[in-house]
Design a protein that fits this description.
The structure holds two protein chains of two kinds.
Chain A (H helix, E strand, L loop, with lengths): L1 E4 L3 H6 L1 H13 L3 E3 L9 H6 L2 H15 L5 E3 L2 H18 L2 H10 L3 E3 H9 L11 E4 L3 H6 L5 H7 L5 E3 L14 H4 L1 H17 L4 E4 L2 H13 L5 E4 H6 L2 H5 L1
Helix pairs in contact in A: 4-5, 5-6, 7-9, 11-12
Chain B lengths: L13 H9 L2 H23 L4 H17 L1 H14 L3 E5 L2 H14 L4 E4 L3 H5 L2 H7 L3 E4 L2 H9 L15 H11 L9 H18 L2 E4 L3 E3 L4 E6 L3 H7 L3 E7 L3 E2 L5 H12 L7 E6 L9 E7 L3 H5 L15 H5 L1 H6 L10 H12 L4 H5 L9 H5 L6 H19 L2 H6 L1 H13 L2 H14 L4 E2 L2 E2 L7 H4 L12 H9 L2
Parallel strand pairs in B: 1-10, 2-3, 2-4, 4-7, 5-8, 7-10
Antiparallel strand pairs in B: 5-6, 6-9, 11-12
Helix pairs in contact in B: 3-12, 9-10, 16-19
The chains are: A alpha/beta, B alpha/beta.
């Protein structure tokens, strides 16, 4: 199977290690990965902040670049949510029927990494090894927008050496919310404080999630408070193998 | 008078008020405790319904039909109520509604009126209006009474005094109701209120209520409540005036089947609420002998014009969205500065008062778009979607209304325009990635950014930021794969 990697501008620029892990993981599972170099941003930040006129050209670009592919995979629930759940609204706001049709054709072929592995490829054991105590935060867009269900947990449970500890009130938002964290910084910080407290209660070494944006926000506080707890993207755990660690 | 979202100026923005609320640790404890409890109860009450999703869908479809044919249903309602001996009044705005109610009360020489909890009359600020006319309105819902006695504003749709704990209420009653010896036991507090209110019920000539539903087909109006005060207000006084938002009409009696299952479970987590009152016009020798129904528009017709935004009118005021909202849980209702707080308020208030006012314009941004509200809404209002749409309207209004130089100078707008341009062309995008790596050196210290300038400083107040790494993903790909 051949897929296009939708890296997301955020991962491309700030978390290249997640992209590299995604490529290694998919290739290890026999998937052929293509990286369309023309891709930039899906337009989520603009769209969700209200700059919808500005987001529409980015929607068009995305649709044009990714439409030729049979499947598109991204290590981000949030950006996949934008494409699958909000592109139809963007096309409607643009008043462009042709774009709406193209979106309708493309959207079901765009997958978040964990759902691609579990639902499309049908694997839960990806042969990973990660000897750490880990807790998992299901990000809001993965959970409620694109509904990945327990795919990420199924994948984590199959990782050898990994001690998965349950996070209390896991389904509650961490308080990131894109520009919300800046516009309503105080409220965001109050939500973050509770999330951090629940993470520390698990005594995990690392908090994992499928979105680096939420992890950057959570990790920023974990680091500021010198907790010693790391944040790690799901893709990096799944890409990690015994041979690699020995090397 | 307090400047709220419905005042001409529109009041202060959410982020400013939220900061004040967040500093109140007692408030955060009260709210955290209350919302957590009710959230768990709701989940249990909903969980035992095998057809909950079908019910939600039926509720959504019914409401959507009402909004599509609202004009017809309202005329039908007027006809049915009139036929049953009631009188229907049409109020374009808050002022008209208040004037109608005051003139009815004056017509009966009433100095005091008893009120059932009603958000529509909070919206029109009826109590303040009546006071200026020399008429005292007594709130008879326990929580509304607490709010009225303390001179505060409601902070929740269903439990207006959710921000207060029982010792605070005890002190209030000691001060305001001359309650003598009083403990902070809920039964003691309730009994004090009951004694005070019973007298008021028996004396009042005029009762004022809102409406949860009104049936177009039969003219039946309904109030759903827990304390019995609603039953008292709608049966004891000789004159009953109901002020109802025009969106509350439902087509037929049979539609109660859906809403009476959805509402109690979603709001108080009960299978059935304790008191449900229905009345159809007047019945000779039984209950009020004069019934007035005031149909309030106050911006609702404008909301109707927006096909996506008008979902907000489908709300049945259960408040489940408030109870699950992580933002509401932290800041409480007062930060929304509107009688409609929480997620539903964030989409309803700005639409009712119109885009272009600082306070209400800030409300669509009072959300992390986590989607918990949409998940629990009994009539499936897609709140996140409407929030996003309203953000678009706020931004477009600013861009189009502001003069060219002003919107160009707005830092957020300028940054968004610049980024949109960079994202539109991969060469610009790659160049800006390089620029970010080079430009961050004044901020990064020892591999971490601890302080950000200007509007971004809110981020770095509690979080570190990792600097942009040396190599982007695309640079790695190019090096590894060559193309």
């Amino acid at each position: 199977m051949r897929v296009a990697l939708f890296i997301t501008c955020f991962n491309d620029t700030l978390f290249p290690e997640t992209g590299i892990a995604t490529v290694r993981l998919l290739e290890r599972l026999g998937v052929e990965v293509d990286f369309p170099r023309e891709q930039t941003c899906c337009g989520q930040m603009h769209f969700n902040t209200g700059y919808q006129r500005e987001a529409i050209p980015l929607v068009r670009r995305f649709v044009k670049i990714f439409s030729p592919y049979e499947a598109v995979v991204a290590p981000s629930g949030s950006c996949v949510g934008m494409v699958r759940e909000l592109y139809p609204m963007a096309a409607e706001l643009a008043g462009d029927n042709k774009l709406a049709e193209e979106v309708e054709a493309l959207a079901p072929r765009v997958f978040e990494l964990s759902e691609f592995l579990v639902k499309k490829l049908g694997v839960t054991d990806v042969g990973a090894y990660y000897p750490h105590r880990v807790t998992y935060h299901p990000t809001c867009h993965s959970l409620r927008m694109i509904k990945v269900g327990d795919a990420p947990l199924a994948l984590l449970r199959a990782v050898r050496g990994l001690d998965l500890v349950e996070l209390s009130q896991a389904e509650e938002c961490c308080g990131f919310g894109g520009t919300f964290a800046v516009k309503n910084a105080d409220t965001s910080a109050a939500m973050l404080a509770d999330k951090v407290r629940h993470i520390l209660d698990t005594r995990a070494e690392a908090c994992a999630a499928g979105d680096n944006s939420c992890l950057m926000h959570i990790g920023g506080a974990l680091r500021r408070q010198r907790t010693g707890v790391a944040t790690v993207h799901l893709a990096e755990i799944l890409a990690s193998t015994e041979e690699e660690i020995r090397r | 008078m307090k400047q709220d979202a419905f005042s001409p100026g529109g009041g202060a923005p959410f982020e400013v008020l939220a900061k004040e609320s967040l500093a109140n640790s007692q408030l955060r404890r009260n709210l955290g405790k209350a919302t957590t409890t009710i959230r768990q109860k709701r989940a249990a009450a909903v969980g035992e319904m095998p057809d909950w999703e079908e019910l939600r869908e039926a509720g959504r479809a019914l409401k959507e039909r009402v909004m599509r044919h609202l004009d017809e249903y309202l005329l039908q309602l007027e006809e049915s109520v009139t036929r049953a001996g009631g009188k229907v009044h049409w109020a374009r705005d808050a002022r008209e509604a208040n004037r109608i109610v005051a003139s009815i009360a004056r017509g009966h020489a009433a100095r005091e009126v008893v009120k059932v909890k009603s958000i529509a009359t909070d919206e029109t600020k009826l109590n303040e209006y009546l006071e200026r006319e020399g008429i005292r309105a007594i709130e008879t819902d326990l929580a509304e009474l607490i709010i009225q006695l303390s001179g505060e504003e409601s902070s929740h749709i269903l439990v207006p005094a959710i921000h207060k704990n029982r010792s605070e209420i005890r002190e209030l009653f000691l001060r305001e109701l001359d309650a003598g010896d009083l403990s902070d036991e809920p039964t003691d507090l309730t009994n004090t209120a009951r004694l005070y209110l019973r007298k008021k019920f028996l004396e009042a000539e005029v009762g004022i209520s809102g409406a949860n539903f009104a049936v177009a087909e039969t003219g039946t109006v309904s109030v759903v409540e827990s304390e019995g005060n609603g039953r008292m207000c709608t049966t004891l006084p000789r004159v009953l005036v109901t002020v109802m938002g025009i969106e509350k009409v439902i087509p037929a009696w049979q539609d109660f089947e859906v809403f009476m299952q959805l509402l109690p479970r979603s709001s108080t987590a009960e299978r059935m609420n304790p008191y449900t009152s229905f009345w159809t016009g007047v019945s000779e020798g039984d209950g009020p002998q004069e019934f007035h129904l005031v149909l309030l528009d106050n911006g609702r017709t404008d909301v109707l014009a927006d096909e996506r935004g008008r979902q907000a009118l489908n709300c049945i005021r259960c408040s489940a969205c408030l109870n699950v909202c992580p933002v509401y849980e932290r800041v409480g209702g007062h930060a929304y500065n509107s009688v409609y707080p929480g997620p539903i308020g964030a989409i309803l208030t700005p639409q009712l008062v119109g885009i272009g006012k600082k306070g209400p314009d800030s409300l669509p941004y009072a959300s992390s778009l986590c989607g918990a509200c949409y998940e629990v809404c009994p009539v499936k209002i897609n709140i996140p979607e409407v929030l996003i749409e309203l953000r678009g309207k706020v931004v477009r209004h600013k861009q189009d209304a502001g003069e060219g130089w002003r919107s160009r100078l707005d830092p957020e707008n300028a940054a968004m325009q610049l980024m949109a341009r960079n994202f539109s062309d991969v060469r610009l995008y790659e160049a800006s990635q390089k620029l970010a790596k080079a430009g961050q050196w004044p901020l990064a210290r020892g591999g971490v950014i601890q302080r950000l300038p200007g509007r971004l400083s809110g981020w770095s107040a509690v979080r570190d930021l990792k600097p942009v790494p040396r190599q982007t993903f695309r640079e790695w790909w190019k090096k590894e794969r060559g193309s």
